[in-house]
Amino acid sequence: MTAVIQTSHAPTWSERLKDAGGVAFVALVLGIPMIGLTTVDAGGMLEVRTRWAALGLFILLAFLGRLLFAALGNRLRARQRTKARLSTGAPASGNRPLLLKALGWGLLGLSLALPIFWGDNRYVIDTATTVLIYIMLGWGLNVVVGLAGLLDLGYVAFYAVGAYSYALLSTQFGWGFWEALPVAGGAAAAFGLLLGWPTLRLRGDYLAIVTLGFGEIIRIILVNWTDLSGGPNGISSIPRPTFFGLPFKPPSDDGPATFSSFFGLEYVPEQRVVFLYCLILALALLTNLFVSRMRKLPIGRAWEAMREDEIACKALGMNVTNVKLSAFALGAMLGGFAGVFFAARQGFISPESFVFSESAIILAIVVLGGMGSQLGVVLASLVLVLIPEVGRDFAEYRMLIFGAAMILIMVWKPGGLLSHREPTLKAPSSFIRQSKREAA
Fold it and tell me: 145 with 363: CB under 8 angstroms?
């Protein structure tokens, strides 16, 4: 018996140049409307002007970048093949879990130190607050997509339900933030069950289409049900969270006590910004703790088992219906909590804040971070939120930089930034040693 060994042949320079030429042609087609042509105001009229130099530079960079990327990719694949041949079946690095744990604790320490060292920088605190909102949303969607394996393209609907629930309860009935938080989360969970029940038999692309339609239905209802949601005008004057009943307002002689007057501090607007940051940080940490604990319970193990093989779960007698509904409900509840904070932070919401692009960004965070990885969601949120902020100086090319960064990440790490994830449960060391002795 002869074994046939297939070897991948390295591309020749002519093949590389042909491939890079194809990329340059695509760059030409895409670059003409985005870079080569621009409109300027010429005496009250729009005039189209060309920028051939910028277009030529873009095409040249695409050509050279493709050549460089192909060379690096070939070298990386050759190194991986060499490492696979030399591998003895042992883990690639025993220090990886320790490094990831150290990275997680380092990010936690940085988030706790942020208001201390940068509390007077409103831009930094606001950006960090936005990152934490997306982290919380990513952890919620990670329950549905990363753990249960259910593709959800309408997750922004639960975000909207939580936000509008708090807006209506606070403006119409005078409820406070902490009173409305569990009710809004429960309302979002109810909508999660409403979505999950008719989709029990669906999976893959069909499930994605249904969830996408559900998200659009919620947005259209918010736009057209003017008596309830205010329609396109939204809801304004939403009360901000208080510190145990102490509002973050300038003190007045005849008014109630405020945060600054109660603690004898000078009022500065940054106090409210820092408080909102600390509030979303606490909510995000509680969300992480909740999801981590749920994964170790039988329902969490059932989610991951269903993600791997739903047919096998049914054959073992598992109630797949309840498992799916629990994933939809819990993921929706966490999204509703994030929506409550978003409405309280903004003080104004409208249907334009809950469009499909928000669902796409949240799903991108889960996929780029690594399916089922809690720390991966944090890293992906940092990348996807900070890249547009860094690109503010290049306003015309902001979304181009954003899209190119996403493509590079997925080509470089197709499984996500943290595709390797430690198992939720590990076999005892004594059982592993016994198994090795029996195998020997």
Answer: yes
pTM (two decimals): 0.77
Which amino acid is present at 117? Answer: F
Digits of tens for pLDDT over the chain (440 positions)?
444 444 455 677 788 888 888 888 888 888 888 788 888 877 777 788 888 888 888 888 888 888 887 777 777 677 766 766 665 444 444 556 777 778 888 888 888 888 888 778 888 898 899 999 999 999 999 998 888 888 888 889 999 999 999 999 998 888 888 889 999 999 999 999 988 888 877 777 788 888 888 888 999 999 998 888 888 888 888 888 888 777 777 777 666 777 777 777 777 777 888 889 999 999 999 999 999 898 888 888 888 888 888 888 888 888 888 888 899 899 999 999 999 999 999 889 988 888 888 888 888 888 888 887 888 889 888 888 887 777 666 656 666 767 777 777 777 777 677 765 555 555 555 655 666 566 65
Q: In the 3-class helix/strand/coil scheme, how is the chain assigned residue by residue? A: CCCCCCCCCCCCHHHHHHHHHHHHHHHHHHHHHHHHEEEEEECCEEEEEECHHHHHHHHHHHHHHHHHHHHHHHHHHHHHHHHHHHCCCCCCCCCHHHHHHHHHHHHHHHHHHHHHHCCCCHHHHHHHHHHHHHHHHHHHHHHHHHHCCCCCCCCHHHHHHHHHHHHHHHHHHCCCHHHHHHHHHHHHHHHHHHHHHHHCCCCCHHHHHHHHHHHHHHHHHHHHCHHHHCHHHCECCCCCCCECCECCCCCCCCCCCCHHHHHCCCCCCHHHHHHHHHHHHHHHHHHHHHHHHHHHCHHHHHHHHHHHCHHHHHHCCCCHHHHHHHHHHHHHHHHHHHHHHHHHHHCCECHHHCCHHHHHHHHHHHHHHCCCCHHHHHHHHHHHHHHHHHHHHHHHHHHHHHHHHHHHHHHHCCCCCCCCCCCCCCCCHHHHHHHHHHHC
Half-sphere exposure for 364 (CA within 13 Å, toward CB) = 18
Q: Which residue is associated with the tokens 């195998």?
A: 439
Q: Read off the tokens for 266.
A: 């000078």
